[in-house]
Amino acid sequence: IEPFVTIHHFDMPQELENRYGGWLSPHMQEDYVYFAKLCFEKFGDRVKNWMTINEPNVFTQFAYMRGTFPPRRCSLPFGNCSAGNSDVEPLIAAHNMLIAHAKAVKLYRDHFQPKQGGIVGLTANAFHYEPYTNDDFSYQAVERSYAFNIHWIFDPLIFGNYPALMRKYLGKDLPKFSKEEVELLKGSVDFIGINHYSTFYAIDCLNSNDCTSEDNRSIKGFAGRAIARNGIPIGDEMGVFGFRIVPYGMEKLLNRLSLRYPNTNIYITENGYCPPNYQEGTELLQDFTRIKFHQTYLAAMSKAMRSELNILFDIIK
Ligand SMILES: *[C@@H]1O[C@H](CO)[C@@H](O)[C@H](O)[C@H]1NC(C)=O
Ligand SMILES: *[C@@H]1O[C@H](CO)[C@@H](O)[C@H](O)[C@H]1NC(C)=O
C-alpha cells in the first residue's frame, strides 16, 4: 500500500474563517501555501504522493451552496442559511482553491520536488452522466453536467481556464483568472485524482419541465439529475446519496477524461460500495455485492486503460 496524502480535506481553522471569510477570500491562498510548505518540509522525505485539496467541487457545494458543511453559507432555494449566496459563492471559493493549489504546486516543484522526487495532484469527485432522454437536449445536458461538475475543476489545472460552457452560461458570475494565474495554473498537476462512485441521468432544464427550480439555475448548468428513466433505475442501489451500481460509468468517465486531458496521469483516488440498510445476514457478512462491485468496476477501469478503441467509439457515437 502506497499512501497518497491530502493536505486540505474540508477542515478549516475557525480563526481564518473569522479573520477574512476563509476560502471566499484570496488571503486564504497564501495561508494554504504556508500550510502546504510546512507539510512538504516536515513529511516530504517520506510522502511521495501529494494531493493538494480534496474535492473542491463537493466541498464548495456543501459549504457554500447547500450550507450543510461549515461554514454553512447558502441562500434559497438551496437552503435557508443566515448568510451566503448559493449562486456565486461556490464559484468564488473554488476559484481561490484552484489558485491556492497552483501556488503550492509551484512551490513544491521549485523547492521540494527536485530533491524529494514526489508527485503532486488534485482530486475531484466525478460522476458519469448519461442522457435522460434520447435527444440533443439531453446530450447537451450531459455535456453541461460534465462541464459544471468536473471540467470546472480540471480544465483550469490543465488548460489554465474554465470550460467554455461555464463561461457561456455563468457570464460575469464566473471569476476570471489573471494572465499570471493562467500561466501558474496551466499544467499544475502531475496527475488528476478521480473519486468515482456512481452514474446519473442528466436532465436538460432549459427545454423541459422535468427539473426542480433548484436545478434550473446557472450555477447548476441548467441540468438536473435522476437515478431512473421510464421507471427503470440506472443500476442497483447503494446505501448512500442515491448512488447506484453502474460499472460502465467508470469506463465511460475514464474514456472521456483521457480524451479531454491527453497524456495526463489519472488515479482513481476513491471508489467503493456501501450496502443499503436492508442487506443482512449472509449477504452482508459475505459481502457478495461488494466483491461484485469491485470486480466489475475494476474490470471497467481495465477496459478503459487497455482500449483506445473505446475512446474512438465514444467520439463516433
Ligand atoms: C428561513 O429561516 C428563517 C429563520 O429561521 C425563517 O423565519 C424563515 O421562515 C425561513 N424561510 C424559509 C423559506 O424556509
Ligand atoms: C428555466 O430557466 C430558464 C432561464 O432562467 C427559463 O427561461 C425557463 O423558463 C425555466 N424553465 C422552467 C421550466 O421553469
Write a concise synopsis of the structure shown.
With 317 residues, the chain is an alpha/beta fold.
Structure description:
- With 317 residues, the chain is α/β, with parallel strands linked by helices.
- It has a single domain, classed as TIM Barrel.
- The strands form four sheets. The chain has a five-stranded parallel beta sheet with strand order 1-2-3-5-12. A three-stranded mixed beta sheet has the order 4-6-7.
- A hairpin with a 2-residue loop joins strand 8 and strand 9.
- It starts with a strand and ends with a helix.
- The mean pLDDT is 95.
- The structure holds 2-acetamido-2-deoxy-beta-D-glucopyranose (2 copies).
- The site of one 2-acetamido-2-deoxy-beta-D-glucopyranose has 4 residues, from loops.
- One 2-acetamido-2-deoxy-beta-D-glucopyranose binds next to loops.
Provide a count of the helices. 11
**What is the C-alpha radius of gyration, as a whole number of Å?**
20 Å
Please describe the biggest sheet, giving its number of strands, its sense, and whether it closes into a barrel. 5 strands, parallel
**DSSP helix fraction:** 40-55%
Name the average pLDDT. Answer: 95
Series of secondary-structure elements, N-terminal to C-terminal: EHHEHHEEHHHEEEEEEEHEHHH
Strand count? 12
Quickly list its features.
317 residues, 3-stranded mixed β-sheet, TIM Barrel, single chain, 5-stranded parallel β-sheet, alpha/beta, binds 2-acetamido-2-deoxy-beta-D-glucopyranose
Helix/strand layout:
Layout: E1 5-8, H1 14-20, H2 27-43, E2 49-54, H3 56-65, H4 89-116, E3 119-125, E4 128-131, H5 136-159, H6 164-170, H7 179-185, E5 191-195, E6 199-204, E7 223-226, E8 228-229, E9 232-233, E10 236-237, E11 244-245, H8 247-260, E12 266-270, H9 281-286, H10 288-306, H11 308-316
Parallel strand pairs: 1-2, 2-3, 3-5, 4-6, 5-12
Antiparallel strand pairs: 6-7, 8-9, 10-11
The chain binds 2-acetamido-2-deoxy-beta-D-glucopyranose (2 copies).
